[in-house]
Design goal:
The chain contains twelve helices and 14 strands. It has 387 residues and is an alpha/beta fold. The chain has a single domain, classed as Rossmann fold (3-Layer(aba) Sandwich), CATH 3.40.50. The strands form four sheets. A seven-stranded parallel sheet has the order 3-2-1-4-5-8-12, with helices on both faces. Strands 9-11-13 form a three-stranded mixed sheet. A hairpin with a 2-residue loop joins strand 6 and strand 7. Helix 1 crosses helix 9, helix 8 packs parallel to helix 10 and helix 8 packs across helix 12. The longest helix has 25 residues. It binds nicotinamide-adenine-dinucleotide and sulfoquinovose-uridine-C1,5'-diphosphate. Nicotinamide-adenine-dinucleotide (NAD) binds next to helix 2, helix 6, strand 5 and strand 9.
Length: 387
């Protein structure tokens, strides 16, 4: 298949592009390097050094003889978006290219507006490009488990059968997300469902949980193929941060009482899910939703798992929760779709944690410790990044 990976310079996009190329697909990536720009804005950097996109693509070609096409541009620029769809003529488009940090979207008005414009407009340009240029293209879009929030009922895969006053219907699962970033994903999901309904597009929305891990078999072949690994309080996600905090001898920062529960998935499973979704397309007119997670854990359970795997003594610190989120809640998520397509999950294991400890130890000198503590408060919008 010809697969275009949008956001192919990012944490997930780059290893996905490599994996799809490895299994024999023709791959091209597109990115505007916004993510590298947020690092400059915040004065941080990936814990693991990363090469430029052009160097990564060159190394992959040297090692495997496989070409990965490379487009540099912004999805919010409709001309660019139409150009890449026309020029590469993909069978499937994997769309990772959005601002993806909840705290970044909650800094202040400017960051909230940027997040929603970047994500919603980029996605809308893409829907139009597909509809006008080739509605056969299968859109595989990264959504997020946080779109649902934490309802007091089981979370189904995107749709809900309801009975109301004696009548039945199948409706989009109600959403109650917890940040302007997560809301941008809800808006995207609605726009995609509408495009499938009115134009007959085919789309898969992958409501992914929090990803952890840093290597796939493809990125591990050469240091120059490494993907990014974020540790800071804005872009660093919880499990990766806890590993890094434990290696640095810092307390693990559990927000609130730590009973809030999240779906998790390992990086190797993410790239495999993307392969499965692309190779098994949705039907024309179908808005298909998969919940892309392999296990659920509370934040305290994640902290305790990392602490018990650590060779060194680790402390767990409960910070006042900077976010507004339920801490005690029901959480039972249906996630059958991807398993039915063949996903064999890697559950969180000591082996994986050990390898993450090793990677972190190797690059621990690159950490700016002051970037580890949360400064962005959900209840109090303010510009803190310039401090
Ligand atoms: P990332 O920030 O590392 O990668 C996103 C990439 O998209 C970046 O390289 C960025 O430069 C690019 N990009 C952003 N806006 C763009 C635009 N307008 N035009 C072109 N390129 C643009 O993020 P990630 O962690 O790899 O996440 C990828 C996707 O997966 C996101 O949509 C995110 O919401 C979703 N997701 C991530 C996680 C996670 O734990 N990392 C979990 C669930 C869902
Ligand atoms: N948390 C802590 N301590 C920390 C960091 C986070 O207790 O040091 C808690 C948060 O309060 C939250 C949970 O851990 O309850 C998850 O936070 P996170 O920063 O790991 O993840 P989140 O903000 O939800 O966002 C990440 C990705 C995002 C993706 C989402 C998947 O950045 O792109 O959409 O995970 S999900 O959470 O399923 O919506």
């Amino acid at each position: 298949m010809r697969i275009l990976v949008l956001g192919g310079d990012g944490y997930l996009g780059w290893p996905t592009a490599l994996h799809l190329s490895e299994v024999g697909h023709q791959v091209a990536v597109a990115d505007n390097f916004a993510r590298r720009g947020y690092d400059f804005e915040m004065g941080v950097d990936s814990l693991v050094p990363i090469e430029s996109l052009q160097a990564r693509v060159r190394v992959w070609r040297e090692l495997t003889g496989q070409d990965i096409g490379c487009y540099v541009g912004d999805l919010c620029d409709a001309e660019f978006t139409y150009h890449i769809v026309r020029d590469f003529a993909p069978d499937a488009i994997v769309h990772f290219a959005e601002q993806r940090a909840a705290p970044y979207s909650m800094v202040d008005r400017k960051h909230a507006v940027y997040t929603q414009v970047n994500n919603v407009v980029g996605n809308l340009n893409l829907l139009y490009a597909i509809a006008e240029l080739n509605p056969e293209i299968h859109l595989v879009k990264l959504g997020t488990m946080g779109e649902y929030g934490t309802p007091n009922i089981d979370i189904e895969e995107g749709w809900l059968e309801v009975e109301h006053k004696g009548r039945r219907d199948r409706v989009l699962f109600p959403k109650r997300p917890g940040s302007f970033y997560h809301l941008s994903k809800v808006h995207d999901s609605h726009n995609i469902e509408f495009a499938c309904r009115i134009w007959g597009l085919r789309a898969t929305d992958l409501n992914q949980g929090v990803v952890y891990g840093q290597q796939t078999p493809e990125t591990a072949r050469d240091d120059r193929l490494a993907t990014r690994f974020d540790y800071d309080a804005v872009f660093g996600t919880v499990l990766n941060r806890f590993v890094i905090q434990s290696v640095l001898g810092k307390p693990l920062t559990v927000y609130g009482n730590g009973t809030q529960t999240r779906g998790l998935i390992e990086l190797r499973d993410t790239v495999r899910c993307l392969q499965l979704a692309c190779e098994n397309p949705a039907d024309r007119g179908e808005f298909r939703v998969f919940n892309q997670l392999t296990e659920s854990m509370s934040i305290t359970q994640i902290a305790e798992t990392i602490a018990s795997a650590s060779p060194d003594a680790v402390t767990i610190e409960h910070l006042e929760n900077p976010r507004v989120e339920l801490e005690n809640h029901h959480y039972n998520v249906v996630h059958k779709g991807l398993t039915e397509l063949g996903l064999e999950p890697h559950l969180l294991s000591d082996t994986l944690i050990d390898s993450l400890f090793e990677i972190t130890k190797r690059f621990a000198h690159r950490v700016r410790p002051e970037a580890m503590m949360p400064t962005i408060q959900w209840r109090k919008p303010a510009s803190v990044i310039s401090n």
